[in-house]
Each structure stands twice: as C-alpha cells, then as structure tokens.
Amino acid sequence: MAQDYNATLNLPKTAFPMRGNLPKREPDVLGKWEEQDLYEKMVQKNQGRPMYVLHDGPPYANGEIHLGTALNKVLKDFIIKYKNMSGFCAPYVPGWDTHGLPIELKALKSIGVENGAISPVELRKHCKNFAMKHVQNQMKQFKRLGSLGHYCDPYLTLKPEYEARQVEVFGEMAKRGYMYKGLKPVYWCPDCQTALAEAEIEYENDPCDSIYVKFQVMDDKGVFSKLGIDPKQVYFVIWTTTTWTIPGNLAVCVGPDYEYTLVKAGSEYYCMAVELVAPTMKAAGITDYETIGTFMGSELEHIQTKHPLYDRNSMVIVGDHVTLESGTGCVHTAPGYGVEDFEVCKNYDEIGILVCVDAHGKQTAEAGEFEGMDTQQANKAIAAKLVECGAMLATERIVHQYPHCWRCHQPIIYRATEQWFCSVKGFKDDAIRAIESVQWIPEWGEERIKGMVRDRSDWCISRQRTWGVPIPIIYCKDCKKPIINDTTIKNIADLFRAEGADAWWTKDVKDFIDPSVTCECGCKEFTKEYDIMDVWFDSGVSHTAVMEQYDCLRWPADLYLEGADQYRGWFQSSLLTSVVYKGKAPYKAVCTHGWVVDGEGRKMSKSLGNGIMPDEIIQQYGADILRLWVASSDYHSDIRISKAILQQLSDAYKKIRNTARYILGNLGNGAGFNPDTDMVSDDQLHELDRWALIRLDRLIDKVHEGYTNFDFHVVFHSIHNFCTTDMSNFYLDIIKDRLYCEKETSVARRAAQTTMYRILRGMTLLLAPVLSFTAEEIWGFMPHGAADDTESVFLNQMPEKSGLVADDAFTEKWNLIYQTRLDVNKMLEEKRNEKVIGKSLEAAVEIAVADDAAYAILSENRELLEKVLIVSSVTVTKTDAAENQYIITTAAGEKCERCWMYSTTVGEDKTHPTLCARCAHVISE
C-alpha cells in the first residue's frame, strides 16, 4: 500500500475561525471584559507611569447615539487604548450633559403637562429620571462599540458635587466683575421661550421678502435745503429682511465715512449710499432717475425722519457697523432687536429702547394694530400697511441664511430682555494668549477659535427654564439689588454639594444663607434668582468639576477631542471659564473631527432616507468594522459612509483576519510552538526572516507615528498594506515550503515560526486599539511567552522593535529580489495562460541580467531565488540587452509527491522513490 505523504506535512491547523462572525462573537468579548473589570485593571497596571488625560466632552443625554457620536467615542477609544499600551497611564472618565431644554421638553411631553402646570421640584424629578434613563442607554451603546472607560462612575452635570463646583466657578467670575445683569438684545426662541447662546444657533436657508422702506425727512438740519430741495420731499431708504421689526425702529444708521447721494425720481428724492444706487433702483424698477449732490455720512447725523407707521421720529445716526455689501447703506435700527443696533444707540441719549414682541414672539400693544400677531402674520400685515401708506419703495424675494434654534429648528428672533451676562471683553486678551499656548489639530483651528473669541463681547448665560443649575444670586427684598459675595457663594455651593440643586426650590433663603449677610440698604431678607445657567456654562466648567474632583485625573487635560462645531461651543466655554478660574487654558491640545455624510457627500437626513444608525452597522457587520471605518478615514474633514464603503472595509478586514489565521495555523499544528522554548536566536534566522522582521520594525515606526499624530488612517493602511504586500504576497507565500515540508522541529522551520510569532504578536498589539475585539480574539488563540499578560491584549505594551539592522547592501539586495519576483510572476502568469505550465513549481526560470551589479547579486543567490520565486529551478546569466530577460520553460526532473517540486533527485531514495532527496531525508529522520 502506498504511503500517505500528506500526513507527513506540517499543514496549518487552528481553531481560530475563518469567518469573523463579529455580531455574534463581540458580545461574548464584552462580557469577558466586564467580568474582568478590564478597564480598571489596565489603568491600575499602569500606575506610576506618566499620566495622559483625554477629557471627555459630554454628549447630551437625549435619545440614541448616531454615527457622529460613535465616530467621536471610537476616536477617543483609539487614543486611550494606545496610550495605555505605550508607556502611559491614561484614565478615561466618560461624561454626560444632563441638563437643558431638550430634556425638559421631553419630560413635559412624557408626563403630558404644559410648562407651569407642574411644580419645579416635580418637573426636575421627571427630568432627572429621563436623563438617567438615556445615560444608561447610551452607556450601553458606547460599551458595545468597544469603548473602555470608568463607566462605573461617569461624570454627570447633575451630580451634586459637579453643581457645587459650577457655583464656585460662577462666583469667582462674578467676584472679578465679569458677571452682570442687563437689558440687551439676545437670541430668543419663541417656541422654546428662552434666551439662547450663540453656540445654540444653527443657520439655515430661509426664503423671505426683503423690503425697501421710505422714511420722510422732517428736519434736515439744513443739509438738503441748502441745495434748494424741500426736505419734505426727501426720504431715507432703509432695507431689511425682518419686516416684523419695523414697529421697533427708532433710528436710521449711516456709515460716517461713506458717500451718500440723493436720487431724484419724479417728485421724490431718495437718500442712499452712492455705491448702492444702481441695485436699489433696479429693485424698485425705476430706470428714469438722476443723482444730485454727495454727502459724507457724518454730515447726515442728527437729521430727523418720521417713522412711516407711528407718530414719532427716527433720528439719523452714524455707526461703524454699517456696510455696503447689500441694502441701501441706510440701516434700519431697532435697538430692542439687535446687538449692533443696541450698542450704537447707546451713543445717543435721546434714543431709548423699544421691544414690541413678547416671549412668544407675538407683537405687543406697543405695535398698535399688529398686537397679538406672530412673526409671519406681522410680516404680511406690516408690509401691507407700508404699501397702503405709500412708504414701501420696493420688495424683493430672497433666500438668505437665518438663525434657527438648534433644539426645535424654528427661526429665532432678537429680543431685548433682562439677562445675566458674562462680559468676555474683560478677559478677552487673556483668552487669546491662552489659545496661542495650545496645540490645535488641525492647525487652522487656532485662527477659527481666535476669531470667534475676538468677535465675542458678552455671553448670555441665563435661561428662563427649570431643568438646570440655578444662577446662584439672591436679591435684596427691599431694594432688589443682587447680592453675591464669598459668603453667599460658599453657602450655596455647600448646599448644592450636600443636597443638589433641587434644594434651591425646596429651601428658604434663610435656611442656607449665613445670618451675617446684609444688603447695603440694611435689609436682611432676600429672594432668589430662578433663571438657570446656560448648559454651555454647565459643560464648560467640567475641566475643574471633573478633572479636579476625580482622584484618577489631573488638570489640565492633555487633549480635548470633539466635532468642529465645538470651537463655538465646548472648546470656547471651557476656555473662557478656565482662563478666569485657573488663569490658563484647560487643555494642552485640541483635536477636531468633521461630519458624517453619505457616500455621495450629502448630509444624512430622514427626508433623504440616507441615514445609517450605528446599531445597524454593528448588527450586520460588527463593531470592529465600524471601528475600521473610523480608522480608515481622514476624519478632520467630512467622513463618508455607505453600504459599499462598509463592504470594502469588510473585505479589508478579512485580509487582516486571514493573515492572522494563517500564522496561527502554522504555530498551532503538530506539537505547537512555545515561545519560551522553541524560538531561535536572531543569528539562526534566515535572511528572508530578517527581512520580514525589519519590515515589521518599519511598520511599528509607522504605526506609532500614526497613533501619536492621531492619524489613524495611517495606522490602518500601514497594517493592511503590511498584511497584503509584505506578508501574503511575499513572505508568507515564500515560506510555505519551509513550514510544510521541513522537519517540524528543525531550526529552519523554527526560524520561520519564530518570525511569524513575532510578527503576529507585534501586529496584534498594534491592531488592538483599532480592531479591539479581533485583537482580543487573536490574543486568546496565539501562544505566549512568560512575559506576556495572557488575560487580555490590553494589559500589554506595544511591541518593541527587533533591533535588526538593514545596511545599504542588504536593502539593495532585497529590493532587487522583490522586484525580480514581481517581474517573474508576470511571466509565469503569461505561461499559465498559454498552458505551458500549471503551477509555478512546474517552471524553470532563466534570468538574463543586463546590469553588472544586479547580476552579481542574483547569481550569488540562485538557490534563494528558487525559494522566493517558488519555482523548481533558477539559472542566472548575463545579457547585453538593455533590460532583463526572463525565459520560462518546464522544469527538468520528476515531481516530488510530497513537496511538488520538480527535481532530478526524485527516485534516488529506494525507500521513498517518489520523493526528492530533501523530502526523503526529512521522512527518514
């Protein structure tokens, strides 16, 4: 009976599955991590190492996570895991923003009552329950992504100790004179009935009617009459897109350094900027006109015009905010509806402030016949009235960017109300200097946030709602003066730390304010401010409320990482509070990511039907594929995702997984491979093995560089290319013969196993921060030396380089061999197509070399070339041709039944007549 030589081969064998089946396997890994308390073990093991703090920007505890949230959390997880595996102790305390209007509105809806129909304490109880429910839900979703962190005790902005520190920060800012209460136009949402901060505004395209309105001159101060023109025939023409604000008009503002002229059309004269005459008259449909005289804007100051709808004057004033980009150069000025209008009118004592809309956005009695109308109704009615009284010069339908509330997505209004403000002006220079001390990634982030801070004068921090931290101010019952000092702030902070902010609604002032507190007027009785703080102030103090109150953290943070919208949000609110409270920025570096869009670059939306939820991806592909999507992207700009992109990444994942599986199969067959006893020394490695380890060293350098610079796409592409180009297409292909056919315990085979083991171990560690579930799975299947912590891949450090050196000669030689293999493979493929050969081992290759130096290298390595090219015979000759020539013929000799190589030694061994000499020797040993 013929011997079964297949049984003598060292064929790969492993229980590591070919299919990832990630949706099913990953939950088991999560269960293991929970059981191990892996995060705490990882951080504990790294105690004593340099600390690295990535401070988590708190997501909002409202609804399911979306792909943008998943992107953010996965990016942070990459960094936390890498830092903990590369010589740092990197704790990560996740947090949630748990106050604010969206939660309050959802809570009101869930209990079926209107605002005001339930006591504040009861409403706050429902809000807290709602927030905590979503914290738990999102926490579960974040863990499913593979995120490791201090989830057993996350930071929440509703925790008593957090609220207490928030009060202390407010107190410090107030003590330095930066907090004040004043009447000023603010963004106001009629739908939500509260003031909004700039960071709570989103701009959307809004179609509207722009109007050109005539204000008749009543007193020209002699400017026009000296030209022989009757002032009553002169009209200043204003332009606005907010018709509803016309009742609030108190002035017409011109640019002091611009040139103005009178445009005569029929019997009327229209005053406007010289540069804007043509577009204005075109809008009015007037072609027959002439211009008369020119005036500097400064000459027009104090001219009196008549309001077109009311029996009052609107004075002409000057302001540097006037531009000639659109309109007429004569700006409709209503100080109750705009910050610039408000500021410029403060220069004129005779101009007061008029607000004709209420908290619901409806016109008040001051608007006369328009009382009770909402914005849209007022727009139509006021426009009709202007036409009726002859004051409308023109209307134009336009589409412009208009601010909307980020919560309800309804258009907002500007409305002057009494609010609490933080005066950024007072410490703006300090904030700019702090910005300059920070590393911004990308670099353009520095100029973006600088510009935003430079343009900011006041931060409106009060909100007319219930669910939040109350502004810690008490008022004198008699003179109404706000009282804020070290004693009151300490009393309130102590109260909140002990009982939480709910105590503001349940305790009387006398129960927590020290009896020594007395108003300047002598009164010792006080009332409370019931407005709450802006949620951006809540999250903006997290740098001290979290980093200085968790023992495992320290201040300042090494990194903040959030979406690019946070330049005007969390990055800025954190910076402003920190500069006052701590004297410098709360972060050493800030990194931003872009938005998730579909495969065609479109924003995801329900209307387009192109949205993908993280859970969909996880259920179909697994969290590791979602993590691979994050790693594969240049996330600083918009990140595309689609089913096609996910499928491509799934294919790339298979290449990495199969590379690991192949190596595991060749380490796990036979008696296996024990790194402590079976590894060979470097001097016993084959030169090809050394080449592979040097390529691994280069990979380690490249991957470290990618992780360090937060360029995770470099990490992914480097590892993927290594698996495809260096391993599958070259090294692992070439060593198959040595692995399968040499004696199991031979030095040659052990050298290949040693190399593969070092590559697999290194690659698994490098992959772990990105493909966390798969790396943990590989780590559980692979053999380990005594130095490894086998409990988890994350309890180990990144791989060290081999220390092998590739000199110029080595590099030149292997570059030549690599290129030769590529060239020969093309020729072999041609011969296969021509049916000259089947498998490459049927071929004999003659390489006719043109270059002398190349000939010397190749001719000296003929036997090595047979292994590299996976052919049965190689000869190297010299040629006078300009390029190398490759001649493929069928190999001489017989095919060895065991290794399939063609050899003239087949049949020499009488015991094993169908084997070549090498295989016969291996079998006989």
Give a summary of the structure in a few sentences.
The protein is an alpha/beta fold and 925 residues long.
Explain this structure.
- The chain contains 29 helices and 32 strands.
- The protein is an alpha/beta fold and 925 residues long.
- β24 (559-563), α16 (570-581) and β25 form a beta-alpha-beta unit.
Describe the protein's topology.
Layout (H helix, E strand, L loop, with lengths): L21 H15 L1 H8 L8 E2 L11 H18 L10 E2 L4 H11 L8 H25 L10 E2 L3 H16 L3 E11 L4 E3 L4 E19 L14 E7 L10 E4 L4 E7 L2 E6 L3 H8 L5 E7 L7 E3 L6 E6 L11 E4 L5 H7 L29 H14 L3 E14 L7 E11 L4 H9 L2 E3 L2 H11 L3 E3 L1 E2 L10 E3 L5 E2 L2 H14 L3 H4 L19 E3 L3 E2 L1 H6 L1 H4 L13 E5 L6 H12 L7 E5 L2 E3 L15 H7 L2 H10 L6 E3 L1 H26 L6 H4 L8 H22 L3 H23 L1 H6 L5 H21 L4 H10 L26 H26 L9 E7 L2 H9 L1 H8 L3 E6 L6 E6 L3 E2 L6 E2 L13 H8 L1
Parallel strand pairs: 1-24, 2-3, 7-10, 8-13, 17-25, 24-25, 26-27, 28-29
Antiparallel strand pairs: 4-5, 4-16, 6-7, 6-12, 6-15, 8-14, 9-10, 9-11, 12-13, 16-18, 19-23, 20-21, 20-22, 28-30, 31-32
Helix pairs in contact: 1-25, 4-5, 6-12, 10-11, 17-18, 18-19, 18-22, 19-22, 19-24, 21-22, 21-24, 24-25
